[in-house]
Design brief:
Length: 194
């Protein structure tokens, strides 16, 4: 659940922080923030609020919904987005297992980014590179999560540090890929952090 001060590596401005969403304990409820997923603002003063996140956090500051009285919104917020994090069936050590949480959601997102980069390379274009500015510029591609919370911050319309920009809906991947393919100039973006 909610942790007052987010720790490294999730709060690093050089990563995409992935939270979790699910359909409730029985799998038959609204899509909502998984209450065990963390979210909030960085504990480290060196992780100032990045330029690419400023508009989203300013929007969040104007929303209602449960949250702690004192949030340091001048620091990096996380997660950036959330993915379904329940009931992943895997084979491990020769046997079937069920896993979940952000340990399942994060590599799933990494696989999606790999597929997008593969499509870009096949089209003769550069891979995405530093991803957060691209994601925040395309917030409308995500399915907004407006139910649940992480025990400290409730989901609200738009970005919040519980489900971030939202999750992948039926068209999110295709929309992000189409927009990435349409970009004419892309840099690796490491200078985008400030």
């Amino acid at each position: 659940g909610y942790v007052a001060a987010q720790k490294y590596p999730s709060s690093s401005p050089y990563v995409v922080s992935v939270g979790g969403v699910y359909n409730g304990d029985l799998g038959d409820d609204f899509l909502q923030v998984d209450p065990i997923t963390t979210g909030g603002f960085s504990a480290l003063s060196v992780n100032a609020l990045p330029r690419w996140q400023r508009e989203a956090v300013a929007h969040f500051a104007k929303t209602a919904g449960a949250r702690p009285a004192h949030l340091n919104m001048s620091r990096r917020a996380c997660p950036d987005l959330a993915l379904y994090d329940a009931q992943y069936y895997i084979v491990q050590d020769g046997g079937d297992s069920v896993i979940g949480g952000t340990s399942a959601a994060t590599p799933t997102f990494a696989g999606m980014v790999s597929l997008m980069n593969g499509a870009l390379l096949s089209a003769g274009k550069a891979p995405l590179g530093f991803l957060p500015p691209f994601l925040y510029a395309n917030e409308d591609a995500f399915l907004d999560v407006v139910h649940g919370g992480n025990g400290g911050i409730d989901a609200v319309p738009g970005f919040e540090p519980a489900a971030g920009l939202g999750t992948f809906g039926p068209r999110t991947f295709a929309t992000l890929l189409q927009r990435a393919l349409a970009l004419k100039n892309r840099t690796s973006g490491l200078r985008e952090q400030g």
